Amino acid sequence: MKRPVFLALAISLFSCQKSTEKLPTDLSTLAATQAATTRYLPALNGADETTAFQSLIDQSSSGDQIIVQAGNHYFKSTVHINKSGLYIAGEHSTTAPTNYMRKAPTSSGSGVSVLDVDAGVINTNIDWIYIDGGNLPEPCMRVFGNYTKIYNSHFRNSGNTGLLLHQANNLWVEGVKCYYNYMCGISQSGCSDNDIINSQLYENGAEGLTIDVFSHNCNVSNIWIYKNNTGSRGVGGIGIDASNGAQIHDCTIDLTNGHGIRFQNNLNVVDDGCQIYNNTITNNTGCAISERHPALVTNFGQWGNTFAGNGTNGICTED
Questions:
Q1: End-to-end CA distance of the chain
Q2: Is residue 311 part of a domain?
Q3: Beta strand pairing status for 301-303 and 275-277?
């Protein structure tokens, strides 16, 4: 049982203690020592759970946990993570989520994202969440808040992109799977210093991953990028545009309908200092690495890559 703050303070004031011992200086210090609260979202297997999930977030404070329980959860509107420091996890087996968060059509049929990490929110932790976009518009999940960490989660069947990272910095994405999305598996815009590692991005209609629009210093490591651009809506397995300092290494990029990696350069802004190394890039219909407007690709390095079975092995350029 939690000890009420006023009782804890009273005990500290009146217990026998040496005069040299220091008392807490404010009540917030005492409150921070209290155990976090865990709240649960039960599966209703049909009814809209947007309000119920939002209510759990609204009741929570930094350090609290919300557990999405096993079963089917349906959402007609977006749930906003609008508080910092929350831990949101889904029930799961040893290998996969068993909570199935499903996007349901709205009355207008326009669709929404299921889950947003709002701008200004920091230190959100997401673990073992499964979101099915129902092939409806908007991403499965959008991240606008810095220092978000996403682990072991699935984002699939979006009518747009599985996971959208927008003007969000210092993110950590690990162990995720993004697949069967109409557009990209993971798309970044205006981000910096994000790590995307140990994940799988496959059979998406456009790129498996984009590093776009001033998304600088992105570290991409040990990603399986397989059979992307199935709908010819993108440029390859990984697309880069107007972004500096990308590090792409120890990845497998295979069977892309298009280029393995392409510097797209639609914005006519340099991609400076990108390094691509120790990857296996095979069996893509286009080039292993393509540079569109190569004068915009500056201080680029590639080494230790394995190229085989591509339309063109190695680097090709396009004006």
A1: 69
A2: yes
A3: parallel
Q: Which domain holds residue 290?
A: 161-319
Q: Give residue-wise pLDDT tens across range 54-113.
A: 999 999 999 999 999 999 999 999 999 999 999 999 999 999 999 999 999 886 666 789
In a domain, 54, yes or no: no
Can you say how many angstroms the Cα of residue 236 is from the centroid of all Cα atoms in its chain?
20
Number of structural domains in the chain: 1
Q: Which residues pair with 103 in a beta bridge?
A: 75
Would you state the pLDDT for residue 106? 80
Residue type, 216: H
Contacts of 199 (CB under 8 A, 6+ apart): 173, 174, 175, 176, 177, 178, 222, 223, 224
Residue 277 counted as domain residue: yes
Q: Is residue 314 part of a domain?
A: yes
Torsion sign across C-alpha atoms 149, 155, 160, 161: positive
Tokens found for residue 121 = 């929110």
Please tell me the predicted confidence (pLDDT) of residue 109. 65
What CA–CA distances, in Å, run from 116 to 76, 82, 89, 144, 166? Answer: 14, 8, 14, 8, 11
> Regarding predicted confidence, which is higher, 12 or 189?
189
Indicate if the pLDDT at residue 31 is higher than 80. Answer: no
- CA dist list (Å): 146 to 193, 198, 319: 10, 20, 36
Q: What is the CATH number of the domain that holds 220?
A: 2.160.20.10
The per-residue DSSP string of 75-127 comes to ESSPEEE-STT-EEEE-B-SSSB-EEEEE---TTS----SEEE-TT----EEE
Q: Please write the tens of the pLDDT for every residue from 156-170.
A: 999 999 999 999 999
